[in-house]
Write a structure and sequence with these properties.
The structure is a single chain. The longest helix has 14 residues. A hairpin with a 2-residue loop joins β5 and β6. The chain has one domain: Pnp Oxidase, Chain A. α3 packs across α4. It is built from four helices and seven strands. It is of the alpha+beta class and 126 residues long. 33% of the residues lie in helices and 37% in strands.
């Protein structure tokens, strides 16, 4: 799905931000849950990573499938999915290591995001 110009502009602004607030729906309550996390812009998608897939934000995002991102420039909505392709996983890990010094240092020691995710079909949130 191709992104529109408004989404492309939000992604351009997002690429310069250090963190994003990910908003998911609680898998039991349906109440919006927010977490501030590291992210990377990869083309028309957002990449995320974590060392621990048992975190509530991961479980909630997997359960809901749809998430929102709160950025300084605006809000985006999109589809959350696990990255299962080894090459795509390595790409997102590499982008995170390039953007964040602690992740870069961790990668030197073979430590890094064990699980990566993609948010695609991005569009301005209502």
């Amino acid at each position: 799905m191709a992104v529109n110009e408004e989404t492309r502009a939000l992604l351009a602004h997002a690429a310069r931000e250090k963190t994003v607030t990910l908003v998911t729906r609680g898998r039991r309550t349906g109440i919006p849950r927010r977490v501030t996390i590291w992210f990377v812009v990869d083309g028309d998608t957002i990449g995320l990573g974590t060392l621990n897939q048992d975190r509530n934000w991961v479980k909630n995002a997997r359960g809901a499938g749809e998430v929102e991102l709160e950025l300084a420039a605006g809000r985006l909505a999109g589809r959350f999915a696990d990255i299962t392709d080894a090459g795509e996983h390595a790409t997102v890990r590499g982008l995170i290591a390039k953007k964040y010094l602690p992740a870069r240092i961790a990668s030197w020691f073979g430590i890094g995001q064990k699980h990566t995710f993609r948010i695609s079909d991005l569009r301005p949130a209502a």
